[in-house]
Write a structure and sequence with these properties.
Elements: H1 14-22, E1 47-50, E2 57-60, H2 61-70, E3 78-81, E4 94-97, H3 99-108, H4 119-122, H5 140-151, H6 156-163, H7 167-174
Antiparallel strand pairs: 1-2, 3-4
Helix pairs in contact: 6-7
Length: about 180
């Protein structure tokens, strides 16, 4: 959720409320999804504008639906869909939650992989570790040498300068936070 979606919602004028209601398709009945008929974001969420040209404020249509129904500004909370239908503006399908609730809801509905289900946990060999990673400045031979030099008492700054990396990288290598697979 972007910062613009956390803006404070203010009550709508009669004209704005009429414009909002005209963009919500309630024809399927009170318990069905009410799709937003106006502009939608790339992820399919309805977008509603309030104010004039100079003070125009965009908000997600489902957040406005929650606000209009309950009279409570969601603020920094997420307005989540029970129906998993982004353009839906039926207040019966909406509930408030935090970022963790959003991630759990997304995972429960099969839209997000997490923990042991994540691809790189299932296929660790597909992740390029160490020198197989094209962004690596060091080789396994370098890492063994760095650990040897540190064990001999050479300071991290000196080792870092020799290998062209930061002292923090040297610390992570020595503490085995990086390059764990290298003996």
């Amino acid at each position: 959720m972007s910062l613009k979606d956390r803006r404070t919602l203010s009550p709508l004028t009669e004209k704005q409320n009429a414009a909002y209601q005209a963009m919500v398709d309630q024809s399927a009945g009170p318990d069905a999804c009410w799709p937003w008929k106006g502009r939608v974001t790339a992820k399919g969420y309805g977008e509603f504008c309030t104010g004039g040209i100079a003070d125009r404020v965009k908000c997600r249509a489902h957040r406005m639906a929650y606000f209009l129904e309950h009279g409570v500004d969601p603020g920094s909370l997420w307005v989540l869909h029970k129906c998993d239908n982004p353009p839906c503006c039926n207040p019966k399908h909406l509930w408030l939650g935090n970022n963790t609730d959003n991630n759990r809801d997304s995972a429960a509905k099969g839209r997000k992989k997490w923990k042991e289900d994540h691809l790189w946990r299932q296929h660790p060999d597909s992740v390029l570790h160490g020198e197989r990673n094209g962004h690596s400045k060091l080789t396994e031979v370098d890492v063994v040498e760095i650990r040897r030099l540190h064990a001999e008492g050479l300071h991290k700054d000196e080792i870092a300068a020799k290998f062209g990396v930061t002292p923090t990288s040297i610390r992570y290598i020595v503490e085995r936070k990086q390059w764990k697979r290298v003996p």
